[in-house]
Structure formats: C-alpha cells, structure tokens
Amino acid sequence: MATxxxxxxxxxTREIRGRWLLSAPALVIIALASIGPLAIVxxxxxxxxxxxxxxxxxFSPDAWLSVFLKRDIFDNTLSFADAHLSIFWRSLRLxxxxxxxxxxxxxxxxxxxxxxxxxxxxxWLFLITIPFWTNLLIRTFAIQELIRNEGIVNNLxxxxxxxxxxxxxxxxxxAILLGMAYVYFPLMVLPLxxxxxxxxxxxxxxGYDLYATxxxxxxxxxxxxxRPGIIAGSILVFIPTLGAYVTPRVLGGGRNLMLGNLxxxxxxxxxxxxxxxxxxxxxxxIVLLALMVYVRVATRSGGQNHG
Amino acid sequence: xxxxxxFDVRHQSGFPIVxxxxxxxxxxPIGALVVYAFNAGASVAIWEGFxxxxxxxxxxxxxxxxxxxxxxxxxxxAAFIATAAATMAxxxxxxxxxxRGLNAKYAFLNMPLMVPEIVVSVALLIFFSRIKLATxxxxxxxxxxxxxxxxxxxxxxxxxxxxEMTDLSLETAAADLYATKWQAFRWITLALLxxxxxxxxxxxxxxxxxxVVITEFVKSAGQDTLPTYMLGQLRRNVTPExxxxxxxxxxxxxxxxxxxxxxxxKRN
Amino acid sequence: xPHSASDEFAIEVRNVSMVYGAGASAFTALDDVEVAIRENxxxxxxxxxGCGKTTLLRLIAGFSYPSGGDIRLHGQNIAALPPFKxxxxxxxxxxxxxxxxxxxxxxxxxxxxxxxxxTEIRDSVDRMLKLVQLEALKDRKTAQLSGGQQQxxxxxxxxxxxxxxxxxxxxxSALDFKxxxxxxxxxxxxxxxxxxxxxxxxxxxxxxxxxADRIAVMSAGRILxxxxxxxxxxxxxxxxxxxxxxxxNFMQADVLSSADGMAEVALxxxxxxxxxxxxxxxxxxxxxIVVRPEHAQIVEAGPEAHLTGTLxxxxxxxxxxxxxxxxxxGRQFILRRQNSRSAxxxxxxxxxxxxxxxxxxxxxxxx
Lengths: 307, 268, 367
What we know:
By secondary structure, chain A is mainly α. Chain A has helices at about 5-35, 40-45, 60-70, 80-115, 120-135, 135-145, 150-160, 175-195, 200-210, 215-225, 225-240, 245-250, 260-265, 275-305, and strands spanning about 45-50, 55-60, 70, 80.
C-alpha cells in the first residue's frame, strides 16, 4: 500500500501536470499566432526574393548584406547602404528625442498628479489614462488635422494674420516627433507617477532643512528617488517608438521613413520579402538590446536605492 | 518650524503650469476632432456651423458599417478566447511555489507586449500566407487568432492581480468543508475572481478594437476593420465623416474603459 | 455530571514525521511523533511557535501529507486521504470565512458540498445559529462582523457537518482578553454538548491548563509530555515543560539516595529534603530540581528553613503576593502566597528570610 509520502509526491506531480494543461491554451495561441512565426521570419531572411513578392527557396545572404551594405551597379563595389543607415539613424534619433520630450514634459505632470490630494489624484489619473485608451490611429489623425496645411493651426494663424502662407508641418520629422510624443506621453507619465507616489516627503523636508534650494532638492533628492520610474517610463516610450509604423506613415508620408515603414515597403512595392525579414530581425535585435540595458540599469538602481 | 501654510515642501515652481498645459494639449487635438465632427461644412478645419450630417453620412456608408461590424465580431471572439485562455493561465501561474518553467511561462505570456507590432505583423503575414496556400482558407480565423494572441497579456495582468489578492486559505477552508477541487473553484475562486475576469475581458475587447498594424498585414482583401478602413481613407481627401466615425469610436472606447474603472473601484 | 472521554481512540498518530526539503537544507518539522486522542476528549496541543503543533494539526486535517508514519481516525488510516474526504473540520486562526457569502451560507457550505437535502441544510443551519447565538445576524455578510462574531461563525461552520473531530488552530489569539475568556467557556460548553472530539492548538499555557482534558506539550517537532493539566503542572517530565508551564524555581541539588519514585537530595546550603523522581529514572550525582512558587512557605531564617536568602522584592497581585528572594548562593527564588486576612504580615524587603519547601513538592528533572 502506498505510504502518505508517496501520495504526497503523486499529488504534487499531478498538480504540476494540471498547471501545464491549464496554461496550454494561452501558450499555444501565443506560439501559433504571435511569437512562434518569428522563427519563420528568421528563415526567410536567408532566402532569395521572388519576382512578385514571396520568396524562392534557395539560400542567399543578400538580404542581410543589403541591410547594411549596397552594391554599386557599375563597378560592383560594396559600400554602406546610406538609404538604410539614414533610416536607422532617423529611427534612433526620433525615438530618443521623443523619449526626452516625453520625460521633460512628463516629469512635472506626474509630479503634479502625485502631489494632489488623494481624492483629486484619482480624477487626474483617469484623465491621463483616457487618451491612452483612444485608438492610436485616431490620435494620429487628430494631430494631422491640427498641423496640415489646410489644418486648424494654419487656418487660425492665417485668419489672425500672423502668417500669409501656411507653414509646412506635415511630412516632416517634426510632424513625426510631435505625433509620437503626443501618442506615447501617457506611457511616460504613469510609471513616473507610480514612483513619485512613494516619495517620502520627509526626505525632501530634510533637504530643505539643510539649506538646499528648490532646485537642489529637485536635483539631488527628488530625481534620484524617482529613478526607477524614470527608467521604466523611458523604456516604455523608447521601445514602441522604435517600432512605430502608423504615426510615421500618416504624418511622415512616403518621404520620412522610420524602420517600421521601411520594413513594410519590402512587403509592398519593394517586393523584397527576405530584406523585410532581415530588417525585422534587426529591429527585434535592437529592441532586445534596449530591454537588456533596461534590466541591467533597473536592477542596479534597485540595489542602490536608499529610500 | 515653518507654518505649513507658508512653505509647501511639495511645491516645485513651474511644475503645475507645465502639467496643466500638458493636460490641455493632450485633449486639444481630440477635442478639435470631436468638435469638427459636428461641422456643417465639408472642411475639417473651417467651421461652418453646427450639423449632424456627417454622422448620418457615416451611418449610411455601407463600407463603414461593414468594417465596424467586422471589428465588433473580431473583438468579441478574440476577447472571449483571450480571456478564457488568460484565466486558465493565471490560475496555473499564480499562488504557487516556483516550479520549473514558471518564469519562462510568465515571460512567454507577456512577450506579445514586448515585441514590436510591425515585426509580429510581418511574421504572421508570412506564416498565414503559407497556410492560406496550403489550405485555401481565407476567412476571419486568422484575424481572430492574431487578435486573441496579443490580447492575452492584456487580459492576463488584471486577472493575475485579482487572483493574488485572493486568500489561498479560503480554498483550503473549502476543501476542509468537503469541497472537491472543482467545487472549490466554482463556489469560491471563481466567485471572488470574476471582477478581474470582467476587467480583463473589457481590456481585451478595447485593445482588439483599436488594433491597426497587425490587422492591416494579416487581413485579406475586403476584410477591413474600422481602423484599417480609416487608415485607407486617410490617404485620400478627408471629410468630417472621418471625424464623425472617430467620435463614435472614441465614445465606445472611453465608455468601456470608464466602466472598467468603475468596476475595479467598486470591488476594492 | 462529570465529563469523561471514552476509552475509544478518535485519532491515533503513529510515528509521524514531517520533513521539508532534502539533504543539508532539510527541515524536520515533526520528528517521530506519537499520540492517541480519545473520543469526546478536549485535547490541547501546546507549545511555542515553530514547535510543530500547527503542522501536526494540518496533517490531521489533510492539508499536507506526512513524510512518514500513520494517522488513524477510528482505526481507519486517513493519512493518504485528501481533506475533502476526511470527516474532520477545522476552525482556522484567521477564520477564513467566505467574504462573498452571508453567515447562513457560510455555515451551510459544508453540507451543501456534501449534497445534503435543502431541508436538512436549513435545519442544521438554524440549529447552529442557535448554538452559537447568532440568529440575528444570519443574513449579514461576514466581512461586516466583529472578530468575536466571526469566530462564532467559523465554529458553527465547522460544526454544521457534524465531523468526528474538530480541529481548532489558535482560534482565540485574535480576540481581546475579556472576549477570549468568554469564548474559552463557550468552547468547553460546546464540546460537552456536541460530544465531538476537540483538538485545540495554542501557545498560551494558561489557556491549555484551563480548557483541556489532556495536554500534549511540544517543542522543536517532538512531543515532550502528554497528560492531564494537573499532571503536566505538578509532574513536568523535563526541564522545558517545567519552564514553559507556569512559573517555577530551578535549583541544583545533590542526590544522596534514591529508591523507586523518591530520592533524598541535599539542597545548596546543606539541608536535606525528599524529592519526587520521574518514573523509570535513576538519578545520581548533581541534578536539577524544580519547586513551584506556591509549594513553599516563607518562614523565619533558622533551623526550620530549607533555604535562606534576602527578600529583595514583594509584589502584590490582589489575589496573592509574590516574594522575590535572593538565595545565599546567588540564585533567585520566587515564592507565592495567597492573600488572606489571617495570614502573617509580610516581612520587610531587605530582611533575611527562610524558605520551607512543602513535603513532596520538590521534583527531580530529567534534563
């Protein structure tokens, strides 16, 4: 007859098996319709492009090479693919600038919310969250309506006589920057708020007590205390903007491409699926790199938190 | 010690102004959008008086209605599938001693949040096109599957949060009182969990409704959802019909999220 | 009518061990524990936190399975049964009341899970509500009740399915003093009325002494002594038990001679007194002896006294007085005397006094 210890072990194995069964549907769905297919993209990046899109099943390193290099048609020399590299550079630059703007504007905003009374705080939080749940496309469209040549801002400025001709704002890097900052602003505010909510203002009082000015207190007390929030918010803005597609497409037009648009191009007019695959893998690599940096910085900061 | 009223430790000069300006700027574009939906004229920028005509036009637009209906069908199916899967996954990964593979599972379940949508779109485009060739199936199944997949983490997080708040000793007490595992789940766990499940469902629904990129890549011809229809329209001459559609869409999303807030607060 | 447990055993725990982890980091929560609890008995598991009493209770309830050994209920081995198959119910320390159900629904839960008929459930619930005097609150949600009321709901809920054994895991620890005393009386009454075996876990030795028919004193995963409150108090089997239960005085003494059950020892200072010996133990040489504070008298320092010392402190407790005496050897001796009108006046602090130990009060300890 089985001893109680055997029963215990059997029960435990049964339970673990049960847990795997329970989590199976979710894991399978994600594996089939989200993460799994990424493996196929990797495979496709090593194939040759077909004439009307799709691929030819033969090995070709061309896709990966053309991510960074291009071959001169005349003398067959390899040189850096300026077009691609300038798009990489724009993506990184715009993402970085968006994050910076969001941080500079988001910090006072989060601070403001965190220093309201308990009851009003909830309302302010609710107000920040609402745009966040509004469709990305609608928000981008709203910006477009403001800055178009026939848009609200230009019309207003012409009407009151400040300018004679509409200012070209659409289809510029400025438009993309504005759009992305607008769309991702709440994502910066929320983590900032979360860490500001926890600030023990007695530490701030201590700072003032020791002859610090408001600026000093801000710089040497408040900012270090909110460091986890700053890091989290930055990552939450930087990564999605790297992968942005809709906003640059609508506001940047066909001229100011970000990486996401470049990728889409290969599956549309560009008809170079392997290149699109290789570019996607490159984007994924950059995102993973950014995530690793985040984890490194976040855990280090956690260890040094004096609180 | 300084009088509390004269020196506010919390005050930083300029912050409140910046914050209020940000709030204003946050709502300005959306506000303008909504306002011009009621424009009598055909311009999205020149006001010509109040009118509801664009709402009527949108209402009578076959394509808009078809796209909206498709969005609702996909969102409903995907939300229910995602919530069911997420509930089971949450039960499997919460309130347990760490076991082998638990951390991996948790990371995997949240991966759709980390991977850029464009990369997933490309992957699904390739994968599903192969399946389309092999099986000839071109229905809404692909979209529902894709939506369900990226909705799972959104449903998972609130359910997990709610589950962690539920005291494990209650299920132990139920077992002590002759409840089998299934009975304990049905009468105790589920009863206490349902606000989290409801929250997850609403979140998943809104997220699915809002999706643009993945839908754009995965859809076959003629399978527009409301967002992809709007994306197509943005290239052409834009009329306040777009504003009208956007306004309705806004109301639905905001309505659901407000409901979500109320439900979460009530149960706390 | 005197209450007595039957001779039948309700629960037998045989050679039960509970080990967590393995190898170097293994933690033994219970070490080869053995105890037999009688039917209709109010049995208490007593010990400091971490001694394993709650672990043992959980094994009886079925929330864990023992690493080794047997647990029998009326002769039937239940160690391998899941909790919902054991006719044993628990009152939890934090009550674990279902917050989304009313008082009645909570009480009805066990019977509902057992698929009893609607009428049977209704009658049982009514009976239980009357038993714990909560009829007025039967439709209230449990979250709105006070601690004492929640306690009674937890009790009613566990008693409704008429289990063979009721387990109580420190159920009174969250209540304030007065409520606690009331509930102690309540619990005794309930046990009498229902005739169900109660196994009660506590770290409060006073609670154990006042309520239990028998007590098992536990420490570090082992049962040190099982006996009636009187036996535990008067005849502690070892040092830990003597120290844990009530107040006691420890002293070194030399064994002069010993026979079955009795020995003659020489106290520090030379006086000889008889001392009780635990069964089967043959003491020799230097031993520890214990004397309860109330088993000694304060006398004139002189030939009558067994020990002498200086009275350092006199503490007045209303019902009795404690005398803190510093013995000549340096040790402290606490002596307790009941306050009565006819008692002699207490000596002043600082005077030299004598202590006379009652006959048969000293006991030699197995260390």
